Amino acid sequence: MNESLWRDIRQSGYLHRPLPLYGDRSLEQEQARETILHAAALFPTAIEEASVAGLIWEHRGAGTLSATSEGLPLLGSPTVMPAWPIGAPADGDYTNFGNAWIAASLERANWESFNRMTLELRPDFQGVPNAYVMIQFRNEGAIPIPDLYEREGVHGVNLRNQEWNTIHLNIQELPRDAITEIAIGYMINGKERATGDTMELRLRSITLEQVPVSSVSKGWLPSAGTIIYSQSGYSLHGTKTAFASELAAAAFHLKRDGEEEIAYSGDIRMIETALGSFALLDFTPFKQEGRYYLQAGDVRTESFTIGAASSVWHASLWKALNFVFCERCGYPVPGIHGACHADITASHEGSMISFNGGWHDAGDVSQQLIQSAEVTAALFEMAEQVKAQDEDLYLRLLEEGEWGIDFLLKTRFGDGYRATSAGMTRWTDGRIGGMDDAVARVHNQAYENFYCAGIQADISRKLPNAALSTRLLEAAKEDFDFALEEYGKHGFGQKPTFWEHTYQTSESLYMATASWAATMLYNTTKEERYAKHAASFIAYVQRSQELDGILLDDGTAMRGFLYRNPDKRVVQHFNHQAREHLYMQALVAIHQSQPEHTEADSWLASIQAYGEYVKKLAAYTAPYPMLASGLYHIDEHLDSRSFNLQHLLIDEQALADYSLQLQAGVRLNASFYLRRFPVWFSFRGNNAILLSAGKAASAAGAYLNDQELLDIAEGQLRWIVGCNPFGQSLMHGEGYRYAQQYSVLSGEMTGELPVGVQTFGNEDEPYWPQFNNATYKEVWTGNAGKWLSLAADLYAVDARR
After folding, report:
1. Cα–Cα distance between 401 and 395 in angstroms, integer?
2. For residue 789, which of 59, 208, 397, 411 sits 20 to 30 Å off, Cα-Cα?
3. Distance between CA atoms of 341 and 357, rounded to whole angstroms?
């Protein structure tokens, strides 16, 4: 880790203030340097000339439209409205105070000769934590925009407040053959303590431009002459490859950073894959620690690290932790927000709490107990691995983890009921009794109690604070018993709650979670009843696993994957929330804790079969390290209960689109297809899915001492930090060419991770436009937790070497 980052960490008080943003390596800085080949002013500098360009602005939504003294459009509104927007839930759940827009109509304008738009905007948002502005397009040509789910054609940008901003937007992939409208506006997201009363937005210019195409945003093939590589680096003992769509050179050189000295040379080998032809640079045999860069002819990469996990990924841990800290709820995060959401309340049996604490779920600052619980577990998991090598990080992880423990305990009512989630998507004034308050959901759900019991028991063994450890273990035992009682009454029949992050949980995942929780309690208490429960629950999981194998058209078989339940009609998938790792964590934990059990050999066989499956999946996306989503049966969508649990906010069109999405994948046999990306609809983005699958691979790989599985696990991190077709790191501030993300209320944060790469329509290839919108670009705190958890396994394996 370089001295510059260490200096920033120390100056932040070891992350008691946010790390600075590293804009010099961002996509936006790269865009500012692009050469303009041709330009056309869409909107001139004076509003009275607007009709010349065919743009006449009209007002929509909240607020008012007027003109400045210079004749520029001026959109203004209060920061809080007296009522929720028309159509919003009466209780204000997942609701802000509406949007303010200006819009201009066009006569089916064809913009296909332009690939970039540049705008000048000035926000004057009094005391608003983040000046977030939206730019929206309507196309009525071959591909209508916005799409069915209103995700496409909307770009959000975080602006510097009270100054003019120049925004460059790549519109290469925007359907733009018949543009009929452009609109610009902002969300009215409420007031916190420092927020003023008004918001104003000025527009100065809009220009259509043609610039040299320097990047791609859809498909598997990267830009010509661009080397795709892991921008953080490579493990000393793992696979080390980079690749390009084409390179003029016949050989490549690995050179030491800052020098021309060649450390390793190799031939560039062309490979043919199902995704296309690639020029492969393989330097796996090289095993010397240090900072290096790759060069092939005139093409070279930026520098990266080769070394142990603690060298390659250590900087990203600090950055991910910074993101988690910046998302604290109920705590004044300097430069972002004050002590927030004290007026989000949860009530039960005459008792009321403020449901703030833990960490905001995502860019909408909503709160989910389970997401905060998972992040808490990951913080302690990572702390265990850095304890001996970085005391500063160890102590800071403990501190952040204890903030999570406080939330876990705070939200328990002590009788099985817990405060579980609240949809805010707004700042609130902190005064209980106002119309901006929100009410948290309160439930006695067996699944949540099983999961929290396991997390609490596991953390209790890692806490240096003996008193807190004892209390956590007591809570874990109580919660496990509450869960058993409710499960005994309802089985799987307890109705899941919409918007909860556990809504999509299948029966087999439920049992894996319960088994893992029982083993965590057994490991801590050594009480045999927990061991028996663990074995009983895991048997259901094994009955839901494909161990015989399905015969494929090519004569091979596929086995080891999971179904949602033992009837084996619907394969277990994840398309938004993702907890695939719990299957392997449960199986590894029970085999490790009960090695003499009569079923121990079958548990080990299940782990091995899953490992076989993961290795077969990896082949479908080579040379990229991204794991394919998995198998889909052609009739899964006919199981309406399962389908509606898996996919939120869909209509009947999704049933037809399901089949179309399968056909865009890989046919395996008459009944099964393989998708590289999930079947999904409104909610898209696969980082959580990849990190969870990577964690499953690392858990199995570490336990089986299987380097191939560990390589696959680490590959999910490499995909995120640049080993993707776009050559972009998806972690802001780590690697290179990272872009702004959908962090509406808090603004950009170093270390933030989005929901992830999506697909366009029903296709099965990566799609990552600059357009910044939910859900794919929304920053997601849970992904930082998964990043830490996966990295913890890599650290542990290195420690054993």
Report:
1. 10
2. 411
3. 9
Within a 10 A sphere around the Cβ of 261, how many other Cβ atoms?
8
Sorting pLDDT into bands at 50, 70 and 90, what band is 54? low
- Tokens linked to 424: 């805010």
d(CA 536, CA 376): 27
What pLDDT, in 10s, does the model give residues 659-694?
Answer: 999 999 999 999 999 999 999 999 999 999 999 999
DSSP-derived secondary structure letter, 54: T
Give the ranges where 154-287 is alpha helix by DSSP (H): none
pLDDT confidence tier of residue 47, bands split at 50, 70 and 90: very low
If one counts every other C-beta atom within 10 angstroms of the C-beta of residue 604, the result is 16
Q: pLDDT tens across 574-621, in order?
A: 998 999 999 999 999 999 999 999 999 999 999 999 999 999 999 999
Residues 6 or more apart in contact with residue 555 via CB below 8 angstroms: none
In the structure, what pLDDT confidence band is assigned to residue 51 with cuts at 50, 70 and 90?
very low
pTM confidence score: 0.96
Q: Is the dihedral of CA 408, 412, 414, 416 positive or negative?
A: negative
Q: What pLDDT band is residue 428 in, cutting at 50, 70 and 90?
A: very high
Model confidence over 615-657: pLDDT tens digits? Answer: 999 999 999 999 999 999 999 999 999 999 999 888 889 999 9
With beta carbons less than 8 A apart as the criterion, state whether 734 and 721 touch: yes
Q: What is the DSSP string of 407-421?
A: HHHHTB-SSS-EEEE
Tokens of residue 68, six digits: 């400045």
CB contact burial 503-535 (16+ within 10 A = b; e otherwise): ebbbbbbbbbbbbbbbbbbbbbbeeeebbebbb
How many CB atoms within 10 Å of residue 310?
Answer: 18
Cβ neighbours for 33, distance < 8 A, ≥ 6 positions apart: none
- The residues that bridge with 251 in the sheet, in sequence order, are 267
Measured between alpha carbons, how far is 638 from 643 in angstroms, rounded to an integer? 8
Identity at 179, one-letter amino acid code: I
Closest CA to 389 of 458, 309, 321, 287: 309
Strands (E), 53-98: 57-61, 64-67, 73-78
Highest mean pLDDT among 1-5, 132-136, 771-775: 132-136
Share of the chain above pLDDT 70, in %: 99
Token pair 């599985």 is at which residue? Answer: 709
Whether residue 146 is preceded by a cis peptide bond, meaning omega within 30 degrees of 0, is yes
Q: Among candidates 798, 676, 747, which has minimal Cα distance to 274?
A: 676
**What gap in Å lies between CA 382 and CA 158, rounded to an integer?**
31
By the 8 A CB rule, do 206 and 119 touch? yes
Phi, psi of 146 (to 5 degrees): -75, 165
Question: Which of 502, 684, 703, 476 minimizes the C-alpha distance to 585?
Answer: 703
**Distance in angstroms (rounded) separating the CA atoms of residues 605 and 597:** 14
Residue 771 is classified by DSSP as: -
Instruction: Write down the residue that tokens 């869409």 correspond to.
Output: 42
**Dihedral sign for Cα atoms in the order 709, 713, 714, 715:** positive
Rounded CA gap, 4 and 10, in Å? 10
pLDDT above 90 (res 150): no
CA distance linking residue 106 with residue 168, whole number of Å? 21
Catalogue the E-assigned strands of 303-425.
304-307, 344-348, 351-354, 367-368, 418-422
11: Cβ contacts below 8 Å, ≥ 6 apart: none
Report whether 145 contacts 175 (CB < 8 A).
Answer: yes
For the sheet with 344-348, list strands across it.
351-354, 344-348, 438-439
